[in-house]
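Practice record 12: protein with coenzyme A.
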Amino acid sequence: MADLEIRLLRREDDRGAFACGEPALDRFFQHYAGQNQFKLHLAVTWVAVRDMDILGYATVAGGSLERRTVPDAKLRKRLPDYPLPALRLARLGVDRRAQGLGIGKALIRHVLRLALAQRDHVGCVGVVTDAKPDAVAFYDGLGFSRLEGVREGVLHGDPTPMFLDIAAISAAVDAAG
Ligand SMILES: CC(C)(COP(=O)(O)OP(=O)(O)OC[C@H]1O[C@@H](n2cnc3c(N)ncnc32)[C@H](O)[C@@H]1OP(=O)(O)O)[C@@H](O)C(=O)NCCC(=O)NCCS
């Protein structure tokens, strides 16, 4: 999408009108993303901006996963049995006005690049996320798989834990150029 900038959230950004259709994600962005980033240092939010208008956001944090949950059996065998460093995609939302225009995909591409930077500087086996029911197909389309043996919710609205390993991330970023 032309002229789309992805940059860090700033204190002065106006977040009040953001609406992606999931009230919990809107509330998080409006009320908690700032303090989590600037005061508590729990997570960092990246925003997709066009003409000074915030059209989407992705919040990332350090994460970890256990070997037994890694979906690829071959990879699972090669990994040690202690908590593995990962990048957690904690929240993702695109404003309703701008859904279906590639902004979610652009934010994910950015998150995948962050995972490669984490790999190079800190260590990272991949990206983990808890997909909302309506977003599982979106993550499927981007190559994510369901984590194995992680208790999936049984109630309507429960999230599905999903994972994209660092080799697939590297290949996807290389292919995108
Ligand atoms: C899910 C969401 C982030 C997708 O962002 P978006 O900007 O609308 O998606 P994009 O335009 O980048 O779509 C990228 C691809 O995913 C597909 N896609 C988008 N939303 C999808 C969905 N809900 N299910 C299946 N596929 C989806 C698109 O068709 C597109 O496919 P293509 O590359 O083959 O053309 C956005 O719709 C949203 O904010 N939804 C409400 C909140 C939410 O569910 N967040 C995720 C929480 S886990």
